[in-house]
Design goal:
By secondary structure, this protein is an alpha/beta fold. The protein is about 30% helix and about 30% strand. It has a 6-stranded antiparallel β-barrel with strand order 3-5-6-9-8-7. It has a 6-stranded parallel sheet with strand order 12-11-10-13-14-15, sandwiched between helices. A 3-stranded antiparallel sheet has the order 2-1-4, covered by helices on one side. Strand 7 and strand 8 form a beta hairpin. The longest helix has 23 residues. It is globular.
Length: about 375
């Protein structure tokens, strides 16, 4: 039997658990037990944009109006009808919020394979790729929580920093980051802080100011209601992780020397909105995969991976510093625990220093 968390596509707080009978494997398929997965505001963003950006299509629920939110995590192959994938293999990749999944393993390499299920053929390849932990240069068994929680987000952070630097910050010397307490935002700030001559201002709610200041990667932290602390003529770039349409309009209206505006995600799910008819530059959606493609062509895949791996090690060393960790994993096991954690993250009630690691596998009886 497979247990899956379903969410209403038009009302994300409405969620329920479904248990369904497993189907036999076909030739080339593998069944993966999903041991742990991360749940972050990024996953909620994927659900909020699920229809527009095809995130609901990765793991179709088969039920009208209900969707399965995709998450990053780790799993173990428990059954295989593919001679190139062994039972017991550890995998990292994009999974459903479930306790197991069937993958059509194809294009096998020592370090990875892709899910060639027909319904995923038109979806972006980075989400269809599963890393084989035994040959993954990033993988260590003792850092699975950090990988699940931060690896995909930091890749986006690193690419944002690279994109801005490649474009000479569009002539700006100040970068404004909304939702400054979010993991993708402070990953971006970590990278930007290493750039000479760039002021990195974190924008956040009053309750998260002290946390953001404690990270040490922002030049300064300003509340959403304190924009008047920043000169209106500041030559700035706005990187929007919040997706709050009203605040985006306020930024575009206030800063007369706004050089570039980039939309990344939507941590403020209740205030998501469009970006039409804004003063100043057009708000442009940042697509990480386009920057990956460009840099792969510029540098070659090996050099791209080397640069990213080096930055990842620097970042996670800081994040996990025992003297002052930026992130502490909180584990939730079993269907009820996962359901409760989902509602907590969706409602924005968790502390930014806490990362939620979930498993729908029921705890063993004691």
């Amino acid at each position: 039997m497979t247990t899956t968390l379903l969410a209403r596509k038009d009302a994300l707080p409405t969620a329920r658990l479904r248990t369904s009978a497993d189907v036999p494997l076909a030739e080339g398929q593998v069944r993966v037990r999903i041991d742990t997965f991360a749940l972050t505001s990024n996953n909620i963003t994927h659900a909020a944009f699920g229809a527009a950006m095809s995130y609901w299509n990765f793991f179709p629920s088969g039920e009208d109006g209900w969707g399965v939110i995709p998450v990053w995590g780790f799993g173990t192959v428990v059954q295989s009808l593919n001679p190139g994938v062994a039972v017991g293999e550890r995998l990292y990749g994009y999974f459903p919020m479930a306790d197991q999944v069937v993958l059509q393993a194809d294009r096998l390499k020592p370090e990875s394979f892709v899910d060639a299920a027909p319904h995923r053929a038109e979806l972006h390849g980075v989400y269809n790729r599963y890393m084989r932990c035994s040959a993954d240069p990033i993988y260590t068994a003792d850092s699975e929580d950090v990988q699940a929680l931060l690896r995909p987000l930091f890749t986006t952070s690193w690419l944002i920093d690279d994109f801005l630097a490649e474009n000479d910050f569009f002539g700006a010397d100040t970068v404004l980051l909304s939702s400054a307490s979010s993991k993708t935002a402070y990953g971006t700030a970590f990278m930007l802080a290493q750039r000479e001559g760039i002021e990195v201002i974190g924008l956040t709610s009053p309750g998260n100011k002290l946390f953001c200041e404690s990270l040490g990667c922002y030049s300064r932290v300003v509340g959403y209601d304190e924009l008047d602390q920043i000169p209106t003529d500041a030559a700035c770039v706005y990187v929007d992780f919040a997706g709050n349409a009203a605040f985006r309009l306020e930024v575009h209206t206030r800063f007369v020397n706004l050089k570039f505006s980039s939309s990344i995600g939507g941590t403020h799910v209740e205030q998501l909105g469009g970006a039409k008819n804004l003063p100043g530059p057009k708000a442009t959606l940042f697509f990480a995969q386009a920057q990956i493609k460009k840099r792969s062509e510029d540098w070659g895949a090996a050099e791209l991976n080397r640069k990213l791996l080096e930055a990842w090690h620097e970042f996670t060393t800081q994040v996990t510093d025992p003297a002052g960790p930026w992130l502490v994993a909180d584990h939730h096991r079993g269907p009820d625990g996962v359901h409760a954690a989902y509602l907590e993250v969706l409602g924005g009630k968790s502390h930014p220093r806490v990362g939620h690691m979930l498993s729908l596998i029921k705890p063993a009886a004691t």
